UniProtKB/TrEMBL annotation:
It comes from Penicillium nalgiovense. Residues 103-235 form the Fungal lipase-type domain. This is Fungal lipase-type domain-containing protein. The lineage of its organism: Eukaryota, Fungi, Dikarya, Ascomycota, Pezizomycotina. Pfam families: Lipase_3. Residues 1-21 form the signal peptide. Keywords: Hydrolase, Signal. GO terms for molecular function: hydrolase activity.
Amino acid sequence: MAGSVIRRVLAVLSLGMIVNASPVQLARRAIASELLERFTLFSQFAALSACDQNINHTGQSLTCDYGTCPLVAADNTTVINAFHSDHGPTGYIALDHTRKLIVLAFRGTVSKSDGNADLDITLAPINEVCTGCRAHHGFWVYWSAVASQATSQLCDATSAYPGYRLSVVGHSLGGGISALAGTVLRTQGFDLDIWTFGGPKPGNMKLAEFITNQQTPNSIYRATHTTDPIPKVPINLPFLDWSQPSPEYWITQETGAQVTTDGVQYVEGINSKEGNAGSDRDLRWPNPEHVWYFGNMSACATPIDAS
Ligand SMILES: *[C@@H]1O[C@H](CO)[C@@H](O)[C@H](O)[C@H]1NC(C)=O
Ligand SMILES: *[C@@H]1O[C@H](CO)[C@@H](O)[C@H](O)[C@H]1NC(C)=O
Ligand SMILES: *[C@@H]1O[C@H](CO)[C@@H](O)[C@H](O)[C@H]1NC(C)=O
């Protein structure tokens, strides 16, 4: 596997020299192997939020079913708080002592109330976060349900573990909530990275611009996969400007294939059509592309979200 990747990279590089292509263009195609490993790690943090044992066991370590989260399972982790309610998001805050991380994770769609949150697609004004910004109402209500508790626990955790990097992660619905939660927490002074996997659009163009410009020293790692329809929704209707922040990391490898560095394309630009947004319409549901992000995202639960 590694050998063939190296051969392909070398082939691309030598082709580049012959046609004198810009090295910048070449650098944009593939991602570094260190970033691929972090994507894989955070996809596992997102996926295992759907395993019931992580939701019911505050104080325990993170585990997952079917051996689909080997990187996290090998670490020394502790769940600080696992949250679950009928009218709010499911997820957890955990420490990873091995890698010095604090992780706030939101689960994808499992319950009926999760499905209702997905479908609650009015644009809610959130001027207190940024002027002119509007957020996906369902995601906003979900974040609001846990905001004060999560914020105070993250305050405690970041002061108890000052060298630990904070990340907010989620797949699908969880990705939409993560984009909002991470954005708000940054305005409150937290340095953090946002990792989303197949997340729907979190809000309007002003919000996407705000998230995109909020990055240094933070980052948003927004992963999409081939034709996954979920990052494309809600679709734009006249007078609405639903948008995705930049950049995007577009996995171009097929479902089930182990993702390699040259199978992830770095795409810049809000609502760029160079990545998932410009890919073919794919209306299959359940959608296989939606549940494969650096690994199997549905081992513990099959997300049922339709929006
Ligand atoms: C465990 O968590 C799930 C949510 O994922 C919840 O539905 C279930 O009732 C919980 N089980 C127990 C025994 O607390
Ligand atoms: C896990 O890390 C914590 C905090 O550093 C430490 O107290 C604990 O002993 C570690 N556990 C294991 C099994 O290494
Ligand atoms: C993901 O895991 C589920 C549950 O084990 C399994 O049914 C499904 O086939 C897996 N998907 C892939 C693409 O391996």
